[in-house]
Amino acid sequence: MIIIIPMITPKRRAFAAPNSMPNSVNDYVRDPAEIYRRSVEAIRREIDLSRFPGGMAEVALRLVHACAIPEIVGDIVFSPGAAESGKRALESGAAIFVDGEMTGHGIIRSRLPGKNAVICTLGEPQVPVIAKQNATTRAAAAVDLWRGKLHGAVIAIGTAPTALFRLLEVLAEGNERPAMVLGFPVGFVGAAESKEALANQASVPFIALKGRRGGAALAAAAVNALAAPLIVEEAP
């Protein structure tokens, strides 16, 4: 005798609460302003911005918005007045130096208050030569081309720890001081250490994300936050 056992299909695990999912592929929020509003509301429900003074709250919110990881808020470190220094620099038309094209492309040019130049020297023909001479990375070699141009600038490093290390070395040599440094290099080798070194220096205002996490999107988001706020005021 052949016994046929009916197959029981296990229930699928829901990825989200039923009322949070669209009913169809055509049922989703399309209005940009509404998307931003809902995003800010969601972030505010999940993070505490009370430890961030003034413009730093805008930066912290934008960083969480860029990666959708509320937990990073506890690892954001900054020097007093860093956000204000960055805002003033951008408003005055200061140049923005970036360590890679990805960071540069993430900066919203139309929001920059002073028609600021966004400068990436990684592709300059001298860079491979300098890297070979100094036995270092191209990202670090590209920083050497920033010499003489750093005064009052905004620096956004979102990829290479060696670029941040090299920048700190250049600054230690007594070169001009930038208005601020945004330290968001990412990776398993040197990322956490380079940001710790940035936080331990006291001569240049900075904002950074401790640990291995970071990336070009976060560095660009920090610049965008300084250029134009995303925060939607809370209802009274």
Spans of at least 5 consecutive residues with low confidence: 5-19, 232-236
Helical content stands at 25-40%
What best-fitting shape do the alpha-carbon axes yield?
A: globular
Mean pLDDT: 88
Major sheet attributes? 6 strands, mixed
Provide the structure class.
Answer: alpha/beta
Radius of gyration: 22 Å
Secondary-structure element series: HHEHEHEHHEHEHEH
Number of strands: 6
N- to C-terminal separation?
A: 74 Å
Placed side by side, the strands forming the largest sheet appear as: 1-6-5-4-2-3
Count of runs of 4 or more consecutive helical residues: 9
Strand content: 5-15%
What is this structure's SSE topology?
Blueprint: H1 32-46, H2 55-67, E1 76-78, H3 82-91, E2 96-98, H4 101-106, E3 118-120, H5 126-134, H6 138-144, E4 154-157, H7 161-172, E5 180-183, H8 191-200, E6 206-209, H9 216-227
Parallel strand pairs: 2-3, 2-4, 4-5, 5-6
Antiparallel strand pairs: 1-6
Helix pairs in contact: 2-9, 5-6, 6-7, 7-8
Description:
There is one protein chain. It contains 9 helices and 6 strands; from the N terminus they run H-H-E-H-E-H-E-H-H-E-H-E-H-E-H. By secondary structure, the protein is of the alpha/beta class. The N and C termini lie far apart (74 Å).
